[in-house]
Amino acid sequence: MNAPIALAEAPGIAACPACAVAPAAVRQGSRAPSRARIVLAVPAAHCAACIGALEGAVAALPGVRAARLNLTLRRLYVDAAPEVGAEAIVAALARVGYEGFELDAATLAAVETDAEGRDLLMRLGVAGFAMMNVMLLSVAVWSGAEAATRDLFHWISGAIALPTVAFAGQPFFRSALRSLRARRLGMDVPISLALILASAISVYETLHSGRHAYFDAAVMLAFFLLAGRYLDHRTRAIARSAAQELAALEVPRAIRIGPAGDAVVAIEALVPGDLVRVLPGTRIPVDGTIEAGESEIDRALLTGESMPQPTAPGLGVGAGEMNLTGALVVRVTAAGAATTLRRMADLVALAESARTRYTSLADRAARAYSPVVHLVALASLGGWLQATGGDWRVALNVAAAVLIITCPCALGLAVPAVVTAASGRLYRAGLLIKSGTALERLAAVDTVVFDKTGTLTLGTPRPVNLDLLPPEALALAGALGAGSAHPLAQALAQAARARGVAPAEVAALREVPGQGVEGCWQGGRVRLGRAGWVGAEPAGAGAATTATWLARPGAAPVAFVFEDSLRPGAEALVRDLQAQGMRVLLLSGDAPGPVAAIAARLGIAEHAAAVLPEEKVARLQALAAEGQRVLMLGDGLNDTGALAQAHVSISPASGLDAARAASDMVLMGRDLAPVGPAIRTARLSVRRIRENFALSALYNIVAVPVAIVGLASPLLAALAMSLSSVTVTLNALRLR
Hints:
Elements: H1 17-29, E1 36-41, H2 48-59, E2 64-70, E3 75-80, H3 86-95, E4 101-102, H4 105-111, H5 115-142, H6 147-168, H7 170-181, H8 188-207, H9 215-238, H10 242-247, E5 253-258, E6 261-266, E7 275-278, E8 287-292, E9 295-298, H11 300-303, E10 309-311, E11 316-317, E12 322-323, E13 328-334, H12 340-353, H13 357-387, H14 392-405, H15 409-413, H16 416-429, E14 431-433, H17 438-443, E15 447-450, H18 452-456, E16 457-463, H19 471-481, H20 487-498, E17 507-512, E18 516-521, E19 524-529, H21 531-534, E20 546-551, E21 558-566, H22 570-579, E22 583-587, H23 592-602, E23 606-608, H24 613-625, E24 630-633, H25 640-645, E25 648-652, H26 657-662, E26 665-667, H27 675-708, H28 714-733
Parallel strand pairs: 15-22, 15-24, 22-23, 24-25, 25-26
Antiparallel strand pairs: 1-3, 1-4, 2-3, 5-6, 5-7, 7-13, 8-11, 8-13, 9-10, 9-12, 14-26, 16-21, 17-18, 18-19, 19-20, 20-21
Helix pairs in contact: 2-13, 5-6, 5-9, 6-8, 6-9, 7-8, 8-9, 8-14, 9-28, 12-16, 13-14, 14-27, 14-28, 16-27, 16-28, 19-20, 27-28
């Protein structure tokens, strides 16, 4: 065909359409992947120290390729060889003191309930009630009670405080015990030690009729520690991950149509080929193809499309989409874990659990921090024993305060809270993060390179001169176009059907690779394709339009002229990027004329046409050598090398599988506009991470010396530690 559009750049087109489809069919039909994905719930994971312990224990197993803990969801994602079962991973977790549960649909529903939040709240209530009563008794002592009266109040306080600390402190005690059994020092070890020290000192003072007992401090310490942990739990729950939002779209049951009539069944009971009925106002439970019925589909939650899309038999629908106006009968192509929705949810969860260099820094700091905390506390104990002439009461109080105030909770929360909030914000804007380091790399971008067809444009050519051509030409073009896989031929066939033009009676259709399609009509040969092949004068290399030609007996060849619509938001995105000071380039495999026309329309000064895939890679390598950090946007097979080469890359959801696999982010809707705000969000995320590190460092610089010199009681230390953890989490939530 006389079509300057490059076949490699047209989505889904290769020299032989069957060759292009066959590999994908083999890949999608495979049921024996080389790696098995195992997901486990780890309810006891709650801090940065848990990440290193869990991931290290599982990664050490033979056959395990990678293990990643999503701290927000408390789920462990394991890529392993098929022979590695969940039982081996559960055993490895038990060896380091954690209980793990393999997730299926029923277990996942149970895990999503906030059992931990309810447990923390119950213990917090018990600690608060006991604290008020112990404080009332302490007032009597502070008011001047002496001798037997003071001892009585101390004993009553102990009777209330000791069971309370034993009950309310269980979350800390259990975690500390697991750490010690695994021969490591988690952050709950110093917390538990402080609670035990405060209670033991109080019992000692009471037994020896001392003037001061610290039962009130021990109970208040437990109360404020629980309050901080509960607030941390709630603020992370507020920052709901994008994976949870996707999971909320899943429908647990469907109406299956069978020989005996309709029956409501669980999603897990459906298999490809089943028919399901989708009523108006309900979500579509499966991926499938519409068999009967017409309606409108709201795809806003999945693709960002604001307008409902009309649908009819033969069209595909996806799980999670909302059926608005009419009943539909859908033939199932995928259900449950095989749906696009579930795969997308898994993709987001993995992205949130992936590790940036900031996360690694936080983990290393937290792992090294716990031994340092105990050494500092031990040094404080020894120093105060020497300074006070062996006063164990004062020395132990200072040591307990140091243990509590130096807890690295804030450091461990600095990055996960930001990544969770940012990924949720970008998902709601229509951008799906695949790579865990994408936010960091996106924040550093200073150059943006675009592909044209399918990226800046929709990749769906549209004939624009049909009104100037005779109806006979369109009837012939529609018949010939129906026999070709080329997008221009298909566009003509669709245009003819849309205008109600019946296709001509063309026999012996035959597609000539690289040229066009031909057939027999009224005893003569007709051709649709390239200008030179049909006997027309080829357009100049600088032609700004795309065309294909029709040759028929007894008439001069006629041209069908096409234009490709700009993708929504393309003009706004280019202006936004230029306003941010970005360098913008257009590299396309298309002919010079259409490329120059699009570049002029968008205001892109730097552009190149007829660029081969290897030339795109070389151009990006040259930009990197110049110190440019490139964001690449592309969608086709000819873009995969450039997408992998770029500092960070984005592919539209409409792109080929290979392009989406090579990219760091996927644009879920048709609109390009979210890319500009995403860059600003990435920069803001990196700023928030750095702010959280600064807050953690400032807290320790101020608080640790205060505790060492004896100016902070265990109670004040607990307040300071809880406040620091909540502060970094709230700072991350500012991204929302």
